[in-house]
Amino acid sequence: MKKGKKHTGNPDFRQPISELIDELKAYVNLQLEYNKAAYRKKAAELLGQLILFMMLFGVFVFILMFLSFAFVNWYAAQGGTRMGGFLLVTVLYIFIALIIYAFKESLIFSTLRKILGKNLSSTKEKQFLGGTSFSNEKMTDKYLEYLKDQNRKQENSIQHQFKTVSEAFNMVNVAKAMINSGIQAFVTTSNIIRAAYRLTKRLRTKNRKKLDS
């Protein structure tokens, strides 16, 4: 990042303003990059929670349904074989629900992070990850920390640049610039008047020579 130089002599107001604009652009780009990565991470977590809830809810519905059938058959048949079948099915669904919950990271969250990362990640993030899978949550957290650090550096640079601009626009420098502009305008006007005077003098000399001849 560029650091503004302290101006001496005749101040140039355009340089600190241009540097400040560059710093602001870089800061805005970093903020957008950070928000994009943070949004994708949160979106993966929310969608993962939603899918997990829907899957567990669906299994729970089947559990209740088969438990109800089992109870009805047991009550009607007083321990008939149908009840045993329904109970076995219920145990099977409970087992499936436990497996889904135990492997929710690899089955749901990692898959979602990978899909969203491929579709929403920037070239800068891909270069930072260096071939690491988007499913790795730790690498995403490292990238967010990296962006935070870059944002802090950019904020410090912008503050420094604001200070440089304020120093360039103090009353002394503004007065110097006005005086310098006035002197340059006066010198330019003086040169034009001199040139016009010399040209007029030459023309008069030529006209006199013609009249004398």
Question: Could you describe the 3D structure shown?
Answer:
The protein contains six helices and no strands. It has 213 residues and is mostly helical. It has two domains: 14-169; 171-213. Helix 1 (14-77) packs antiparallel against helix 5 (137-168). Mean pLDDT is 75; it is low at 1-9.
How would you concisely characterize the structure shown here?
The protein is mainly α and 213 residues long. Helix content is 86%, strand content 0%.
How are the secondary structure elements laid out?
Blueprint: H1 14-77, H2 81-102, H3 104-120, H4 123-129, H5 137-168, H6 171-212
User: Quaternary status of these chains?
Assistant: single chain
Structural class: mainly alpha
Broad shape: rod-shaped
How many β strands by DSSP? Answer: 0
> End-to-end span in angstroms?
75 Å
How is the biggest beta sheet arranged? none
Strand % is: under 5%
Total domains: 2
How many H/I helical runs?
A: 6
Indicate the percent of residues in helices: over 70%
Order of helices and strands: HHHHHH
Low-confidence stretches: 1-9
Q: Let me know the average pLDDT.
A: 75
Q: Compute the gyration radius: what is it? A: 39 Å
